[in-house]
Amino acid sequence: AAEHKFVLEIPKVELHVHLEGTITAELRWKFTQRNGTKLRIAKNGPELKTIEELRTAMDLLRPDSSRVNNDEERFQFFEAYYEGFECLKTKEDFFDLAMHYFEHAATVNVRYCELFFDPQGHTSRGTPWIVMMEGFREAQKKAEKELNVKSAWIMCFLRDHSPESAMEHYRAALPYRDIIIGIGLDSNEEDRPPVLFEEVFSLARHDGFKLTMHCDVDSKNTHDHIRQAGSIVAGQGLDRIDHGLNAADEQGLINLILKRDVGMTICPWSYLRHTTYAELGPKIRVLYDAGIKISINSDDPAYMEDCWILENMLLVRLLCGFDDKDIAVLARNAVNISWATSTVKEDIL
Ligand code: ADE
Ligand code: ZN
């Protein structure tokens, strides 16, 4: 249809996608075969013997608003997500994984992206930094040259690990700071408020990194976490908030986000794990209509029935009643709230 063509062709910037959330069943199978690693959906799960078994197990993790969540399901997602890391061993694996994202990105006209990665999930398995980062770097160079997709990396700390571990990883990553543009915070948010990580975020800002942080829709203290991320962490609050959808419930939070001009990365499909269709459209609309610079993104496409940025844009178009003009605003927001150089931004706009 015409709207599909418009959404497909518009130049895009993606700001919220976990590289480890792009390990599709096919990729995982390939890496597992190549490395001789075991294939399980979760650490304590049975060994999976075929790609079909893996596909079936991953399919059960997809967001589905007809069985709107419970914490149990959340836990299952994280268990599976981290078990998925196990197939990554060599520089070639990290290179192939990043290249797989960039190749997909090119097919839907993503021209620039800022990609999350979770170093703690790799160092804890004995992966050397150089293996990860040089794999990323080579893919990034090749994508820019051959696919016209530019990129930068956002290093996320796992908030269910200690602030000390975050600090250690921050320091260890400094030799690669030429390709790391920002610092983020992800993983399970339960009892892990933004202010716990004040020290490392303040230091990172001082050192010139951009700052963002997940404020997930299912966090029990969602409003307080958005307030902390928006106004307290690193002295005055962060540069962006990832998700933060529940700001739509409180005018005070909306005002704060507007006043500080904080960009927000919204991942519609992801919220169907915890929200109904009926709730989702209106909430996104509240933020959009308030004039907040929200962007549309994919989060963990491999765990979401292969829904990438294009499918997420089509979903909000439908759920929020957006027209092509609105889609163009959302695409422009992503360019504006990105941390790309002005030359890169102008080239996309
Ligand atoms: N890491 C990867 N996916 C995530 C999500 N949806 N929420 C928090 N942390 C994540
Ligand atoms: Zn995320």
TrEMBL record:
A GO molecular function held by the record: metal ion binding
Family to which the UniProt record says this protein belongs: Belongs to the metallo-dependent hydrolases superfamily. Adenosine and AMP deaminases family.
Cofactor(s) demanded: Zn(2+)
Keywords: Hydrolase, Metal-binding, Zinc
Gene3D superfamilies, A to Z: Metal-dependent hydrolases
InterPro entries assigned: A/AMP_deam_AS (IPR006650), A_deaminase_dom (IPR001365), Ado/ade_deaminase (IPR006330), Metal_Hydrolase (IPR032466)
Annotated source species: Oidiodendron maius (strain Zn)
GO BP, one annotated term: hypoxanthine salvage
Protein name (Swiss-Prot/TrEMBL): Adenosine deaminase
PROSITE patterns xrefs: A_DEAMINASE
Coiled coil feature spans: none
Domain Adenosine deaminase: 11-349
Entry-linked Pfam families: A_deaminase (PF00962)
Cellular-component GO terms for this entry: cytosol
Keyword Metal-binding set for record: yes
